[in-house]
Write a structure and sequence with these properties.
The complex is a heterodimer of chains A (about 120) and B (about 450). Chain A is mainly α and about 120 residues long. Chain A has helices spanning about 1-10, 15-30, 35-45, 55-65, 90-120, and strands at about 35, 70-75, 85-90. Classes of the chains: A mainly alpha (about 120), B alpha+beta (about 450).
Chain lengths: ~120, ~450
């Protein structure tokens, strides 16, 4: 499992950041439709401020995911509010999310196995 | 504060369609406004809140470059069957759009559904009645060759279906046009086999009737040719209903049924739903036509219905010509009873439904008219709706929607009520009213309506 992962996945820091950002957004959209600011707030709140998605990062990412057909956005108007663009996961995005979840799970398990082994070797 | 203007002032131009740029500006403005408002709620000064909003996009040029690069990419086309695009997704989107549009106008939807459901329901019910009563073949072998004998009665030339036994026998024996002629006579008796005794209705039938119709008893046997002979005529064929009332025992064949104090041996049980179709008469029991019966031997006793089966290859016209010849011969031989009487045949089905044929076709015509009125009303509603949405369609067209896509969406909104109302309309109870039923001579024609 570990070797397969290492052989097929680039785990450079930039790649991890990029992949994790997509993963986070796709995960949060696997449920109710959400607008951009709501996504940013959830990420910040749930990570207790350790992760922060600014507009300059979030919207290019959402547009990219939309271009790839993984999410779709639509404007929603509610009385007394500025209209907002809500995003939702497409069926293709759901498939990608499922694959990403498996990869992340394997990655975390691999990291855990490596670090646990290092601890016992001391 | 005009946040859209704030973003427009800072976001450099990049290669993106104008409408798309407006969307991006609006979305970024909403985010900055929300960040500003959140900071203010937490007690920040205007300047600090503005700085927080400004920190959302540290480098507007980099953002424009990023978004521009993404927007220039061609969209990833979904693979077939992925469910995220393609022709079928377009259809699903249109269906959703049509549904939402209709749900936003519940009055229109309700009127359309009610109109179509009512029209379709009435139409389906009427068609069911007409088809079952007028068109469904009689439940006999080769029903198209089964005829009902008619006689013309002098002096006015009135037509009747009441035939004398000897006339029917002569018609059968003196021509080759008929394979067989069976006779039927209404019959009623009191049976003491039921407790308490009860008046039951049935038929007196000739022995050749059931084989001619191609009907076999459920249990036992049909009447044999000897069952009409004197001394051997005390037999009975039970109707299915009476058999059930007597316990439905399969060993009932051979037991005794007492009719008008005369014991008769049960030789068989008729299948459920059996009817000779020419009498609106109960089918509790069948007894054989008795050759020794004084009435059966008289040409003046005209009470039988004669059902004839055309011989193979004989047309109705040929059979009528032969029947007229025999009639003339009988008139010459028996002037006291047959003077001026002629015979002809007509399809049994026509005779069975003759009384209600015109009324049912009229009913169907009226229902078709109602359906047409319902359709016109709905068309008017849809047209009015389409006119009110002309502006929306023009905008969609200007934004790049194809004519095909627009037509498909309009079509979807029209078809949705039709599809929705069809099950309701077609499930409308289609049983005819009792007043309609009593017009048909044989109630079994309603079975399956």
């Amino acid at each position: 499992m570990f070797h397969t992962y290492m052989a097929t996945t680039d785990i450079s820091t930039r790649s991890l950041q990029k992949g994790s950002a997509e993963f986070l957004v796709l995960s949060l959209l696997d449920g109710p439709d959400r607008h951009g600011y709501e996504l940013a707030q959830i990420i910040e709140n749930r990570s207790e401020g350790r992760l922060s998605f600014k507009a300059a990062t979030l919207y290019p990412l959402l547009y990219k995911l939309e271009k790839q057909g993984w999410v779709s956005g639509r404007w929603v108007e509610r009385s007394g509010e500025r209209r907002k663009r809500y995003y939702r996961l497409t069926p293709a995005g759901r498939k990608v999310l499922g694959a990403r979840r498996r990869v992340w799970k394997e990655f975390v398990e691999a990291l855990d196995a490596v670090t646990r082994g290092a601890r016992f070797a001391r | 504060m005009d946040w859209k203007q704030y973003v427009r002032d800072r976001l450099p131009e990049f290669d993106v369609p104008p409408l798309r740029r407006l969307d991006i500006v609006e979305e970024l403005a909403a985010q900055l406004e929300a960040t500003y408002a959140r900071a203010r709620r937490r007690g920040a000064t205007h300047e600090a809140a503005l700085a927080a909003a400004d920190s959302e996009v540290p480098d507007w040029s980099a953002l424009a470059a990023d978004v521009g690069r993404i927007e220039r990419r061609p969209p990833v086309l979904p693979t077939p069957g992925s469910g995220s695009g393609g022709a079928m997704t377009g259809w699903l989107q249109d269906v959703r759009w049509s549904t939402r549009g209709l749900l936003r106008t519940p009055a229109f939807l309700a009127i359309a559904l009610a109109t179509l459901s009512l029209g379709l329901g009435i139409g389906a019910a009427a068609w069911s009645i007409v088809h079952t009563v007028l068109m469904r073949p009689l439940p006999f072998a080769d029903p198209h060759r089964l005829m009902l004998m008619h006689a013309t009665v002098p002096p006015a030339g009135r037509e009747t279906v009441e035939i004398a036994y000897p006339d029917a026998v002569d018609l059968a024996q003196q021509t080759q046009a008929f394979e067989a002629i069976g006779l039927v006579l209404p019959y009623a008796a009191t049976t003491t086999t039921l407790d308490p005794p009860e008046r039951i209705e049935g038929l007196s039938i000739s022995a050749n009737l059931l084989p001619m119709l191609g009907v076999e008893p459920l249990l036992g046997r049909a009447f044999a040719s000897t069952d009409g002979e004197p001394g051997q005529d005390r037999v009975a064929l039970l109707g299915f209903g009476l058999w059930q009332r007597l316990g439905g025992d399969a060993s009932i064949v051979g037991r005794t049924l007492t009719l008008d104090d005369v014991p008769r041996t049960i030789v068989g049980v008729m299948p459920q739903g059996f009817s000779v179709q020419v009498f609106a008469h109960g089918g509790d029991v069948n007894i054989p036509v008795t050759r020794a019966d004084g009435a059966a031997g008289s040409r003046a006793f005209r009470a039988y219905r004669a059902i004839a089966r055309l011989a193979g290859g004989v047309s109705i016209e040929q059979a009528n010509a032969v029947a007229a010849t025999v009639g003339a011969r009988l008139a010459a031989a028996f002037p006291d009873t047959n003077q001026g009487r002629t015979f002809r045949v007509a399809p049994l089905l026509e005779a069975v439904v003759a009384d209600v044929r015109a009324a049912l076709w009229l009913l169907l015509g009226l229902v078709a008219l109602i359906l047409a009125i319902a359709a016109v009303n709905l068309a008017n509603l849809v047209l009015a709706r389409a006119v009110s949405r002309a502006r929306e369609m023009a905008v969609r067209c200007a934004l790049g929607a194809s004519r095909w896509r627009l037509a498909r969406r309009c079509w979807g909104q029209r078809e949705w009520p039709v599809g929705s109302s069809s099950p309701g309309g077609l499930s409308t109870p289609s049983r005819p009213c009792p007043a309609c039923r009593c017009r048909v001579p044989e109630k079994s024609r309603w079975t399956g309506v």
